[in-house]
Amino acid sequence: MNKRRIIAFLIAFTLTIGVTAMWSAATITREGDPDVNLLEDSGSQAGNMSAGKKDGNKVVKVLTAPFKAFGRLFKHNDRIERMTEKDASKFATVGVSKAEDERYQASEVNPSATAKEHLESGREFLLAGRLNEAIAELSTAASLDPKLTEAHNLLGVAYDKKGFGDRAKESYERAVKSDSNDPETLNNLGFSLYTNGNYRAAVDRLKRAVKLAPTDEKILNNLGLALCRLGKIDDAYKSFVRAGGPLVGSLNTARMLERFDLEDDAIKYYEMARHVDPNNTFALRRLSDLYNRVGRSVEAENARVALASLSHGSGAVAGLER
After folding, report:
1. Is the CB of residue 261 less than 8 Å from the CB of residue 289?
2. Phi, psi (5° rounding) for residue 321?
3. CA distances from 26 to 47, 62, 201 (A)
4. Helix, strand, coil fractions of the chain, as percent rounded to 5
5. Which domains does the chain have, with CATH numbers?
């Protein structure tokens, strides 16, 4: 096989891997809580507060995914990033300076560093997505200064990202115990309780967080999600409205009700969205479909006619089409 054929083969192979990775990233797997993803589709913020980490441009992530996937096929990496509960338990012990086993070796911890220096190192590792190192540094910071609220809070974020919900909850609880008036830690604890199905406790923590930060969009949306799960739809709507305004609040409530297969209730809130913005094409499309589902053919046809009368590409409102 000559050099040109080898190059052509490698290019074709790279493109195949690229298309597969892009298709997978866009259509199969989506990380995060489904309810949070639903709100984020409408431009709303929800979830925990993770040291100011930005999600970045999702389009860029999809476009770069094939090249990262291709690189991983050939990149040699002696350090395995996945960590088990057994590994995590080693980080949780007081006075850890180094934790290692046959699957994972943590970064050397500077024995002369202060708790705040370990905190800053842990924050940087967390922002860089190096979760194992972040857990090692943040665990050390928390053990050196048990009252260092932010160390416990960020440790909870790192555990959450690793999928260790129980450990994350424990860390958030320690953070709240250290400072019960910090809205960020209350939000993170509340959201952790929410994702684990403990909705009443989640609402309690999130309401406390809202009192401390009454205009924080993320906390208000998390509270709205938890209230939805308790069936307190009107209260959830009010929280969504406080977070993003009447249009976004109506749309987010309607979309959550659709997730619960409550078509008639969803229609009510989509109509409320239309009252705010009569030309919102997303609301019109959903109403056309929902009216059909519940057998209200006249209203479905009216929604289709209204949708057809609008010119295409008239902009976007709150992340959803107009």
Report:
1. no
2. -65, 155
3. 21, 7, 34
4. 70, 0, 30
5. 245-322 (1.25.40.10)
Residue found under tokens 């943040």: 138
Q: Which of 145, 141, 144 lies closest to 158, judged by CA?
A: 141
Q: How far is CA 175 from CA 20, 145, 212, 304, in A?
A: 42, 12, 16, 52
Distance, in Å, from the CA atom of 277 to the CA atom of 271, rounded to the nearest integer, reads: 10
Length reported for the chain: 322
Task: Tell me the pLDDT of the chain (322 aa) as tens digits.
Answer: 566 666 655 555 554 444 344 434 433 456 678 888 888 887 888 888 765 444 433 333 333 343 344 333 333 343 334 444 444 454 444 333 333 333 334 445 566 788 888 999 999 999 998 999 999 999 999 999 998 999 999 999 999 888 888 899 899 999 998 888 999 999 999 999 998 899 999 999 999 999 999 999 999 999 999 999 999 999 999 999 999 999 999 999 999 999 999 999 999 999 999 999 999 999 999 999 999 999 999 999 999 999 898 855 454 444 465 5
Place of tokens 């260092």: 148
CB 118 within 8 A of CB 138: yes
Bridge partner residues of 321 (DSSP): 316
Residues β-bridged to residue 317: 320
Cα angle 3, 5, 7 (rounded to 5 degrees) comes to 70
Residue 81's H or E segment, with its range, is: none
From 23, 28, 14, select the one nearest 62 (Cα to Cα): 23
Dist CA 95 CA 92 (whole Å)? 9
